[in-house]
Design a protein that fits this description.
The complex is a heterodimer of chains A (about 220) and B (about 200). Chain A contains 9 helices and no strands. By secondary structure, chain A is mostly helical. Chain A starts with a helix and ends with a helix. The longest helix of chain B is centred in the last third of the chain and has 16 residues. Classes of the chains: A mainly alpha (about 220), B alpha/beta (about 200).
Chain lengths: ~220, ~200
């Protein structure tokens, strides 16, 4: 079986398990929408300010709750399953790629729904072209964050406080993604170029991919 | 933990490992499974030397049934074995056939987290039947199983032996290792050959 077929199989089963567990759709997403609701309630009737902060709140919550999506239960293998995967001949790079694929699909969907909720709750003034920038930014953001989270999950595999430790690794390293995604959307009304911000995210994603491919095997072996 | 161990497993032989809790049985089994590397000395498993990339190529020939089940709880037994079959490059249909062989045909649509310990063990035996491993490592594999399920583990051992593969069985109870060609007793990380 090729590396890509193994990666697709891992991604397929991840999504199947997630559909049954429902962590993203039934727990993380509703909480993220509730968090979106808190800001306008706290600010009262200052509509202009609420409209202005909408995208910033969206990306802040995107990274916070996105980490939960990326570190969801269905993306965690028990130590015995990791052993069986190794013995069955699963390439660690394929496992990493598969996890990144399933996480990318879930996170992109999560961000798009969260953005719709932000538009409804905050009523921001979105310039024309915002939607395609949002889709591209969300996709690049999701790819980068899931790669980073998958790597952080591997580094912290087997630790008792895995989720907390992984979040501490993810938060600082995801700053280029947050800056790129938020600035790309903010750049549209001002007429300034969005390309540098898109390229920043592309470069971050590629760097994560290179690090992931290089470290997949050593991290798996070290996790035992 | 393990010291001064010099061990060679001939094709077609079954080795038993016995010893009290904490004597190093599982550690030795994990070394044989290439999941651990020795701090000192060498281990060559199915031609793959420890510490080299050769072990990655040897791994698909090694089957391990450990203490705890490796199945994904949210998937059915059938989905679990099909998943493993696909990853190992086998036809998913062969996975279902292997489940039938171990007597799980009627319950293969049951989720793993709703299955009994015996069913999970049978499913793991089915996976090893599917993979046709050259080295089978069984860590307390018959503990908690009824006679029929324990017989399936015995059949797996015999099939591996007949196809010139090697089997290592671990137990803290010597009576479970009756069919072994030789038995090693581990005590505080050292080994002695038993009659």
């Amino acid at each position: 079986m090729t590396l890509w077929s193994q990666a697709l199989e891992i991604a397929r089963v991840d999504l199947q398990v997630e559909r049954r567990l429902g962590d993203t759709a039934r727990i993380i997403l509703p909480f993220a929408v509730v968090a979106l609701l808190v800001f306008p309630l706290a600010m009262g009737a200052r509509l202009a300010e609420i409209r202005a902060i909408g995208p910033a709140v969206f990306w802040s919550l995107g990274i916070l709750f996105g980490m939960q999506v990326a570190l969801r239960q269905s993306a965690t293998d028990s130590s015995t399953r990791r052993d069986v995967y190794a013995l069955i001949g699963l390439d660690p790079v394929a496992r990493l790629l598969g996890r990144a694929m399933s996480g990318g699909v879930l996170l992109t969907g999560f961000l798009l729904v969260l953005f719709l909720a932000m538009v409804v709750l905050y009523g921001p003034e979105l310039a024309s072209g915002s939607w395609w920038v949002l889709v591209v930014s969300s996709l690049l953001f999701a790819i980068g964050l899931t790669q980073l989270s998958t790597l952080a999950g591997e580094v912290t595999a087997g630790l008792r406080n895995r989720a907390g430790m992984a979040s501490l690794i993810i938060a600082p390293l995801s700053i280029p993604l947050v800056i790129g995604a938020s600035q790309a959307l903010a750049a549209i009304p001002g007429g300034t170029g969005i390309l540098p911000w898109i390229l920043l995210m592309v470069a971050t994603d590629m760097a994560m991919a290179v690090v992931g491919i290089g470290l997949a095997r050593p991290l798996e072996e070290a996790s035992r | 933990m393990l010291r001064d161990i010099d061990l060679e497993l001939a094709p077609g032989s079954v080795l038993g490992l016995v010893g009290p809790n904490g004597s190093g049985k599982t550690t030795l089994l994990r070394l044989l499974a290439t999941l651990l590397e020795p701090d000192q000395g060498k281990a060559t498993i199915l031609g793959g030397r420890s510490g080299t990339e050769e072990v990655y190529r040897a791994r698909p020939g090694i089957g391990l049934i450990g203490h705890t089940p490796s199945l994904i709880p949210e998937l059915t037994l059938e989905e679990n074995i099909e998943h493993m079959a696909r990853l190992g490059g086998h036809q998913p249909l062969r996975g279902r056939q292997a489940l039938s062989v171990v007597g799980l045909e009627e319950v293969m649509t049951r989720r793993a987290d709703a299955s009994s310990h015996g069913m999970l063990r049978r499913a793991e035996v089915a996976l090893l039947l599917l993979r046709r491993c050259r080295l089978v490592l069984l860590d307390e594999a018959t503990t908690g199983l009824d006679a029929e399920a324990a017989g399936l583990v015995g059949a797996l051992v015999e099939r591996t032996r007949e196809s010139d593969g090697g089997v290592v069985m671990v137990s803290h109870d010597r009576s479970r290792l009756d069919g072994c060609d030789s038995i090693l007793t581990l005590s505080e990380g050292t080994v002695e050959v038993s009659p």
